[in-house]
Specification:
The structure is a homodimer of 665-residue chains. The first copy, chain A, is an alpha/beta fold and 665 residues long. Chain A has 27 helices and 20 strands. The first copy, chain A, starts with 10 loop residues before the first helix and ends with a helix. Chains A, B: This is Transketolase. Chains A, B: Belongs to the transketolase family. Chains A, B: It comes from Magnetospirillum sulfuroxidans.
Chain lengths: 665, 665
């Protein structure tokens, strides 16, 4: 992999190809970020022509090196590399239509749009943290299938922005702690941020910072091919992850504008591009790459063809069970038989009718599921004993040099956990779940958004899901969080009412390939409400009539999670006054909204008085209760006291639910 | 300040007083976190008896040292110190009713509940970042009024959790960059996190990390009084901020359980507390502090009485203008005359009717406001030229050793920016505003929640507020963000339609002392809609009829921000079909919800068909359009293309608005 420099074109020409495609595409789009692709063109050229293991004709090869453009605004670097090395979905028309509707070449690289984007980047710090997930997945795959099957590097191009974002600290400390030595960060050390010189806002010694987190570091001239090559070669042999500080000139190649924030995020203009062509001796028309240069790049795109064939042969030679497991998990298919375990669990719960917190029900469900589905990887942001996310099947915990286990101690790094889980899911082979308190979903929300945008099967176990957590008080009581999660596209938000619904929620989440799922789970014990076993997954409908009215329905009581049993109490209070009310359990709004109009009308009860109850922000419930209904919930922050006292204090009670209904009859 | 050790009680006894109050209160509450208060009792005793400048009888003294318990779960440390040193609002009944409804002693320290909480802590990493704001405010006050008026330290007690959270990196790099040498962090280096040994999840060399960010560092035995005192004394003389790694035993004093995660977050139990009493030779009943120990602590609480009197004399001796400005800004009162500038601006806009983006209108408004209100402090998370947050009055920018300016380059640290702004606001004397893209409010949301929970006047300038940002694509187009902000209690979310509404929004925000305000501002140009000057602040009503129907109203079109002009177009389309529609501009839901029922009915139009349009998530709009109305907006993620193409692609057009109304007539 380290030899085979191209023979027919010079390094300068190959780097110029990146620079001029970037300049020309951004100029034509009248928007974009030329500074980074131009500044990092030399580094990328060395990496892609001498080191990166990839096959442009097989973009999803499982054992390819991953390349993460964490500084996603420099998307033209990725698109130029994709076109030059010969990816089928990145022809010159895509480059010419950068940032245009209906083309794959979006302003920032979008996973699923272009096949050479291993992850979506742009929100700074996400990519470098996804990369920790990639590197971790690689090590975990190697522990399972051997180094012949999983043996790839994860390269990251990161800018100052990525390293200034707090999430980067969570990433690098976790990578250093786990000694993910196949992770290599190429830092575009150009001394420029958007406001101007980075000295406006930072004085960090980045190499010292990374070293403090257990990384190897190097400083190089990011325009010197041999320094670049030597640093990468050394990094590949390090026993730790490596940071390579590549001192570059932003917008290198733009003779008048380079080295300034002016080239960061705006087209260079025709005059400057002409000057750049003159300076680089690049007489070609816009979007034209001379044949000898393109050929050299295309050769780079096929360097690993043989290596890939050898790898495939090794996969084919795996023992049948290992081979089947590898292929199955790569394709994201679940193992046979797991749903039988789901049914058995549900039947057992309905029979035994335990009174348990849904966080405990979640643990019981996870015990069953992790035993049946070996690709599930658990973890928690240092709340294992509270989230109840660990299971027997997940032992032992992951540690440096010990990657056969299935449980990750993410540390007090919620945001990092979520972005690492995105990397694990994107890498292939694993289904990650991770726990924290629901309130701390606020901390990880930007990464959860990326799970949703990339449609990744990531499971968020969010316990202590209301004022029901009690004494920890307002700082720890989620109010607005659930509304935010529900407003996030592609995201399923479950708030199960009992252990049966909890397992059903997991079943839906595991079957859903179109995005993440969140489980809002109680700290406090709740009765089993689904006391008759039903093989159908009622939670999959989003909402259903848990208890129909006795007589012609006058009132519909809508509730989720810990408040469903309260709604059942209210139903009794109303019945005592001769009012016929139905109770609807509504564990997942998004799924309910996907049901037929008829089903929704039947569940909600046309013409009925509707009262919703949920011990969280009332925001959004008008979708179901309309202008005339009532919502019993929180409109301000919580307080510190035992949970029962808080429910009474905030007027979230069966009496309040019943009274709200009576007032509307 | 450094002498005057207590003469009548030993250090061990004084520290024991903290430990036993913590043990007893947590035991009585049956919940809480004894590990940290017990582990840090020695450090706190030295700090509070020898160094901390405070006067228990004057908790809001402007020049007091700030004390931030960043590891807020250790709240009993703060409450014990407050009781022991003699704060009037922290009597023994408060200690005995720790974590109970109606008492100030919440599970985590809540600003505004107990007078010795300089900030609310508990969500990890927030406190240490607030502290950067405190230290910065101190330096800025000193630059304005002299060291005789502002000369105090900011001490932080931080745990491993605070240092693992990403926001801590944003905090320490900013503090190091600005050389905030009066910031001193006492790290409770106890090697224990909730899951167990910190070695489960981290291997950082914290001192090296802080040094890389420009901090001085020291390592001490956190139970050795003289080492503690020497380290604090050295830190006070450093020319950089200082980290003191205090090696402690978590739960020190609990003979059997100390040094383990078991003492972190649960009561010790009667047996262990008895064993602790025996081991410490502390024969006193629960909640009883012997007189000689309490007296010694009470002496510590009055150590700075004379110093405070001297300081008051210096304030009284300030030149009249400076004295007036100091007192006014400390009290949070705005200067005379600023609202005349608001009126002049509004009149000018209505007359000139510019077509400008609301981000530009915001800049124009800020030019006026920052000139009139010298305590406004601007900044941006490295998007100054996009957020348009800088003004002439704010120059020059803040830099190390140069604190007279009024503009902060926060760097690419949105979360840190928000938490630093909380510190600036809490400190007193300043009104911070800071800019980023609306989508990156996701990154700063946990700190914005703290602005809201603490009811702080912090202004969030959130530009590029929809798919109208265009080519940057889905990663940068907010969808769900505005719903989350609207669901957050105590938060005003403005989405102004033109320059007049923009200024009106700022006026409301500056007059609001009960929480933060967010301004969602367009990238793209918008016409002036308020073309007739009105001295009344219509935005203060939250929503108002911008254009009444011609004839009896059949349709109400509700819109915010950039879509208000679209609603006006739709109104014309409907008029052409003989349908009388009114257009309601709805810049702030929260304010509208506070209006009288009659006003709301009048604006919304009882019995009218209602259609809302907003180029963001449709989530929540049913509150106004009900079950039968329509909401034109986004239900999925955006795309990368010029803005006008995106509006058409996603069906957010005047035609679509008109059609939705017609379909419902």
């Amino acid at each position: 992999m380290t030899a085979a420099a191209p023979s027919t074109a010079t390094h300068a020409e190959m780097a110029s190809a990146i620079r001029f495609l970037s300049m020309d595409a951004i100029e034509k789009a009248k928007s974009g970020h030329p500074g980074m692709p131009m500044g990092m063109a030399d580094v990328a050229t060395i990496l892609f022509t001498r080191f990166l293991k990839f096959d442009a004709k097989s973009p999803k090869w499982a054992d390819r090196d991953r390349f993460v453009l964490s500084a996603g605004h420099g998307s033209m670097l990725l698109y130029a590399l994709g076109y030059l090395t010969g990816y089928d979905d990145l022809d010159i028309e895509q480059i010419k239509n950068f940032r245009q509707l209906g083309y794959r070449t979006a302003g920032h690289p979008e996973f699923g749009h272009v096949s050479n984007a291993d992850t979506t980047t742009g929100p700074l710090g996400q990519g470098i943290t996804n990369a920790v997930g990639f590197a971790l997945a690689e090590a975990m795959q190697a522990a399972r299938y051997g180094a012949g099957i999983s043996n790839h590097y994860t390269y990251v191009v990161a800018g100052d922005g990525c390293l200034m974002e707090g999430i980067s600290q969570e990433a690098i400390t976790l990578a250093g702690h786990l000694k993910l030595n196949k992770m290599i960060v190429l830092w575009d050390d150009n001394h420029i941020c958007i406001d101007g010189d980075t000295a406006l806002s930072t004085s960090d010694d980045q190499c010292a910072r990374f070293a403090a987190a257990g990384w190897a570091t190097a400083k190089i001239d990011g325009h010197d091919p041999e320094q670049i090559a030597a640093a990468i070669a050394a990094a590949r042999n390090a026993d730790k992850p490596t940071l390579i500080a590549c001192r570059t000139v932003i917008g290198k190649g733009a003779p008048n504008k380079c080295g300034s924030e002016k080239v960061h995020g705006a087209p260079l203009g025709a005059d400057e591009i002409k000057a750049a062509r003159d300076a680089a001796n690049w007489p070609y028309e816009p979007f034209v790459i001379p044949e000898h240069v393109l050929n050299a790049w295309r050769v780079a795109g096929t360097r690993a063809t043989d290596e890939r064939a050898d790898w495939q042969a090794r996969v084919d030679a795996l023992a049948p069970a290992a081979k089947a497991a590898f292929n199955r998990t790569q394709e994201g298919r679940l193992p046979d038989g797991w749903q039988a375990a789901v049914q058995a669990f549900k039947a057992k719960i309905s029979a035994e009718q335990p009174k348990v917190a849904t966080r405990k029900a979640s643990q019981d469900a996870l015990e069953v599921l992790t035993a049946a589905i070996p690709e599930m990887i658990g973890g928690s942001a240092d709340l294992t004993h509270s989230n109840l996310t660990n299971t027997k099947a997940c032992a032992p915990s992951i540690a440096a040099g010990a990657f056969a286990g299935r449980y990750i101690h993410y540390g007090i790094r919620e945001h990092g956990m979520a972005a690492v889980m995105n990397g694990l899911a994107l890498h292939g082979g694993f289904i990650p779940y991770g726990g924290t308190f629901l309130i701390f979903a606020n901390y990880l929300w930007p990464a959860l958004r990326m799970s949703a945008l990339m449609e990744q099967r990531v499971l968020y176990v969010l316990t202590h899901d209301s004022i029901g957590l009690g004494e920890d008080g307002p700082t720890h009581q989620p109010i607005e969080t659930i509304a935010a999660l529900r407003a996030t596209p592609n995201t399923l938000v479950f708030r199960p009412a009992d252990a049966v619904e909890t397992m059903e929620a997991y079943e839906v989440a595991l079957l859903n390939h179109k995005g993440p799922s969140c489980f809002a789970l109680s700290r406090q014990n709740l009765p089993t409400l689904r006391t008759t076993h039903n093989a159908d997954n009622l939670t999959a409908k989003g909402a259903y009539v848990l208890s129909e009215a006795d007589g012609k329905r006058q009132v519909t009581l809508l509730a989720t999670g810990s408040e469903v049993s309260m709604a059942l109490e209210a139903q009794k209070l109303l019945a005592a006054k001769g009012v016929a009310a139905a109770v609807v359990s509504m564990p997942c709004w998004e799924l309910f909204d996907q049901q037929s109009k008829e089903y929704r009308a039947e569940v909600l009860g046309e013409g009925c008085v509707r009262v919703a109850v949920e011990a969280l922000s009332t925001f959004g419930w008008e979708r179901y209760v309309g202008l005339d209904g009532a919502v019993i919930g929180m409109t301000g922050f919580g307080a510190s006291a035992p949970a029962d006292k808080l429910y009474a204090h905030f007027g979230i009670t069966a009496d309040a639910v019943a009274d709200a209904a009576l007032a509307r009859l």
